[in-house]
Model the fold of this input.
Amino acid sequence: MMPQRLWVARHAQPLVAPGTCYGALDIAADHAATMESARRLAQAMPQGMWVRHSPLQRCEQLAQALQALRPDLASKPDARLVEMNFGTWEGRAWSDIAQADIDAWTARFADHRPGGGDALRSMLRRVEHALQEAHETAERQRGDGLWISHAGVARCVQWLQDRSAAHGIAPRADQWPQEAPAPGDWACFPLDQIPPQRGLT
Done:
């Protein structure tokens, strides 16, 4: 029997100027790109899946477009799947944010709150809680799961999978995963390789 998997799909290209900080900023995604991503997901997703999505509109758009093509892939919103909130940095060009502020964030990467928004440690905890529920749902429903979410959430899943031997230690900036699904794409993680909650120290 194949191990149950968690598919993490990223919303399509958002309608925002390149180089803009847009973590929790609630912006729409390009309609045509969303429809194309939904078409590809509808073809790739197996039967019997359960689906959750970030409540930000760029993810809701993809969830709704996917359900229109695959009525069996009805999705429920999950606030734990939202992108990191960058506080006062939201909507600003990255080039306009003082280098000293970015350096302060990278120096205390897990606990600093960039722009007064979320600390990465807090984001990792909520994604970890969602992963625990994903394990339980996969066991109960005997099927793969799909999250329609964001690049930051995908990186959290990578960290929680790849650093399972780290005993819950939060990452430094130079350890943080750089790769994430491109807008409209997805990554797939075997749930049996993502450990249960450890609690970040």
Notes: The first strand starts at residue 5 and ends at 10.
